[in-house]
Design brief:
The chain is α+β, with helices and mostly antiparallel strands. Helix content is 49%, strand content 19%. The protein contains five helices and seven strands. The strands form two sheets. The protein has a five-stranded mixed sheet, with helices on one face.
Length: 241
């Protein structure tokens, strides 16, 4: 039964990806064809200004396709092959410092709390940094029209996992969009390619972790990142503050 459900989910995800590709590729290609057809048919009638205008339109449409290809390349290249033992506190301090600087510029209230004992992660440092940066980007974007923006960051221990929670008080995600948020190229934001969450999930799975999201529309978003530890409970001495 679980396998059947998994296969159905895979098919639905593939359908969504192909539908998005059809839209992202089909519409601009059709517009580009019309633009070039008009330019070709009227080349001798148009003056230089008009010709350049049509060429600019064509280049703009082509640039959109280039962004799509780069987004797909970015997903394919995302990996976490070279893993090592990383003290979690190092990752935490890096991310808190980076987030503090970015959120200060955007006048976003930042609350962070470390609620676990020292531990080690088996992970790729660059991959983890990218995951957390992508999630922070999403949280910041969700707060664009919020009058009193706030992001809360906490980390705690759950058996052999570290659980990082990133919570914002933005508008949240519509219920109909929730099943699609981890599908590559799916986005509800104009100008975005919809790769942040899919890449984060891919990298975490490569490191034996995973990601969860809870986002009741109108009540903010809470993202949970689960990271596997390598030391069991043997380092449970003292708290970081």
């Amino acid at each position: 039964m679980d396998q059947t459900a998994s296969n159905l989910e895979l098919i639905e995800n593939l359908d969504q990806i192909l539908s998005t590709l059809r839209h992202e590729l089909g519409n601009p290609i059709n517009s580009l064809k019309i633009t070039l057809d008009v330019l070709q048919e009227n080349y001798d009638l148009f003056d230089d200004v008009k010709r350049k205008d049509y060429l600019k339109r064509g280049l703009k449409l082509l640039a959109r396709q280039e962004r799509l290809v780069e987004a797909m390349k970015s997903y394919s290249r995302s990996n976490a092959k070279e893993q090592e033992e990383i003290p979690f506190v190092n990752l935490w301090e890096y991310f808190v410092n980076m987030a503090s600087k970015r959120l200060k510029d955007g006048k976003i209230k930042f609350i962070h709390n470390l609620e676990l004992r020292p531990c080690l992660l088996k992970a790729n440092n660059v991959a983890l940094s990218r995951v957390m940066t992508n999630l922070l980007d999403n949280a910041i974007e969700a707060l664009e029209d919020v009058s009193d923006p706030k992001i809360e960051l906490t980390a705690s221990r759950n058996n052999d996992f570290v659980v990082i929670v990133i919570k914002d008080n933005g508008s949240g995600v519509r219920k109909s969009d929730m099943p699609k948020i981890f599908i590559p190229l799916y986005t509800t934001k104009p100008g975005k390619m919809g790769m942040g969450l899919p890449i984060a999930r891919k990298l975490l799975l490569k490191m034996e972790g995973w990601i969860e999201m809870k986002s009741p529309f109108g009540n903010g978003t809470e993202v949970r990142v689960w990271l596997r530890t390598t030391d069991g409970h043997k380092n449970e001495v003292g708290f970081y503050t």
